[in-house]
Design a protein that fits this description.
- It contains ten helices and 15 strands.
- It is α/β, with parallel strands linked by helices.
- The protein has a single domain, classed as 5-stranded Propeller (L-arginine/glycine Amidinotransferase, Chain A), CATH 3.75.10.10.
- Strands 2-1-15 form a three-stranded mixed beta sheet. A three-stranded mixed beta sheet has the order 3-4-5, with no helix packed on it.
- Helix 1 crosses helix 9.
- The two termini are 26 Å apart.
Length: 313
């Protein structure tokens, strides 16, 4: 049995984009993207401004943000979402994940891992590389595909072309997690591409669009698991799902406070009661990232890879 891990990270990795744009190779499975008429150069300019604004907001809330610059070549239009290719764990392990889109696989960069160790003093003990599943056409896109309850070692996963049982089981076995898998669809019955679009699990609070879970028995099981692990559940509707309200992330700042990070669009979609619950849970930080959301179909949580690695003193 693995040692307990804190649910909340105090540091995050963010990748500053070099050639951001809506990725044609991910459009078929991500219906949240491509909601823009801007040119690629316009998307890049706006994305950098929005990225820097989010970094500033997080740092103002006393979150440790490690920013790494993307490289122009190879072209990685979705590099702004590092949580899909890597996750960091408190036992010093790093997990690398199999990605569906070919042009996303080059987001996996050894130099980033080396930088975390050599420049930022994070301790890396082992790398668990699941990317070999790509050879069989099987994918698991990190903490986009899975929403991890790290404290209780539960991986919630809605199955899709990007989230498949083979690599999911491999992750669970190697990392000592139980899996709660389910099917989830949008209001038109189309599978939702990533689990972190519809739910987030914090320390004491869970946010979920439960009506998106396709089968009653699965919905009951997911909600029961959240409540059995002591979480207060905040329910979202489809309009809020479409506004990326499910794509939030709870962190802990240097003062020990909980910080809930999300986009301004997501925050504005919440009603007064939902906002009050979030405020009572911790500090809320939001930033406007409309271009990133409209172009790439991901939001704040997708941009943050939590760093749970131990620090060398």
């Amino acid at each position: 049995m693995s040692a307990p891990e804190s649910q909340l990270a105090s540091a995050v990795l963010m990748i500053r984009p070099a050639r951001f744009e809506s990725n044609p190779l991910t459009a078929a499975s991500n219906l949240f993207q491509g909601r823009t008429t801007a040119t690629p150069s316009e998307q890049q300019l706006a994305a950098v401004r929005e990225f820097d604004g989010l970094v500033d907001a997080l740092r103002l809330a006393r979150i440790n943000v490690v920013v790494i610059e993307d490289t122009p070549e190879p072209h990685t239009p979705d590099s702004i979402f590092p949580n899909n290719w890597v996750s960091f764990h408190s036992d010093g392990r790093i997990v690398l994940y199999p990605m569906e889109a070919i042009n996303r696989r080059t987001e996996r960069r050894a130099d980033i891992i080396e930088s975390l160790s050599n420049e930022y003093n994070f301790q890396v003990r082992d790398i668990v590389d699941l990317s070999e599943h790509e050879n069989a056409g099987h994918y698991l896109e990190g903490t986009g595909s899975m929403v991890l309850d790290r404290s209780n070692r539960i991986a919630y996963a809605c199955l899709s072309s990007r989230t498949q049982l083979g690599p999911l089981g491999d992750f669970a076995q190697r990392m000592d997690y139980d899996v709660v898998s389910f099917d989830a669809v949008d209001r038109d019955g189309i599978p939702i591409y990533h689990t972190n679009v519809l739910m987030n699990v914090g320390e004491a609070l869970a946010v979920i669009c439960a009506e998106a879970i396709a089968h009653d028995n699965q919905r009951v099981a997911v909600l029961a698991s959240l409540r059995d692990t002591g979480h207060e559940v905040v329910s979202l509707g489809y309009d809020q799902l479409d506004a990326f309200a499910g794509n939030m992330l709870e962190l802990r700042n240097s003062d020990g406070e909980r910080v809930v990070a999300m986009s301004t669009r997501a925050w504005e979609s919440l009603d007064a009661n939902q906002r009050e619950v979030l405020h009572s849970n911790g500090r809320v930080v939001h930033a406007a990232i409309n271009t990133i959301e409209d172009s790439a179909g991901g939001s704040v949580r997708c941009m943050l890879a939590e760093i749970h690695l131990p620090i060398l003193r």
